[in-house]
Amino acid sequence: MQNFCTFLKLAGLAVLIVSAFAHGSDARAAAAAAAPFSISAFGVAMTSCLLSYDGWVALSFMAGEVKNPKRNLTLASAIGLAAVVGVYVLANVAYLRVLPVAQIAATERVGAEVAERTMGSFGAGLVSLTILISIAGAANGWAMTAPRIFFAQARDGLFFGRFASIHPRYQTPGFSILAFGLWCALLALTGTYETLASYAMFAAWIFYGLTSAGVMVLRRRHPERARPYKMPGYPVTLLLFVAVALGFVVNTFLATPGPALVGTLLIAAGVPVYFVWRR
Q: Where are the domains of the chain?
């Protein structure tokens, strides 16, 4: 299912990109002068960008079920990220071949607008279909990976034991997957996707930074443990990542304090629960 959705999504994007390059012109010439650069504004804009790339972390949730993880996790992460970056950059360059920057900023459905201009009504329908397939693929991907967090928590005694159960036939954490699906359905009913995304990105990057910092602590406290993954440039690369995560979190809190405060309160609400489960 995941491979099928990914193939169709990439095929739809490929058609759109080729059409834009074939039928478009360099629309950047008509763009207005860029606004002065602001680190704060750049950081806020990165919220949506980071959300688009956020699937990079999901593979690690299934590390315990991956064959030869030392090789395959590293390879899959590198190839996956490179492919996504390549497709996103090509798509945005293609959009600029058809639409000026000012119109892109004012248009909510950029892909559909580009497709309709280059391929007519067929293009608009193609983009709509590609988006639906992308949604199905994303939902399927997160349904496979995110419930493994509940499963791992329960297995370590930090969540309800039922979530650690394995389906007797499919050998998957069936109860965790069911619970995750129900929770997502409830969130979807709120109809506040953009708000939820802001909360999620702020909270996620707090944990990305803490997890990365934890790697350094773990290596110092337990130098005797095996290190199957070799990090080029360690600890400089890890420190740079922690610094970027910290900068993003601080900037988000200063620029959009409302969503950041809600995200902080949600995390804080889990702290006493954690200590209760540790008893």
A: 1-26+50-142, 192-279
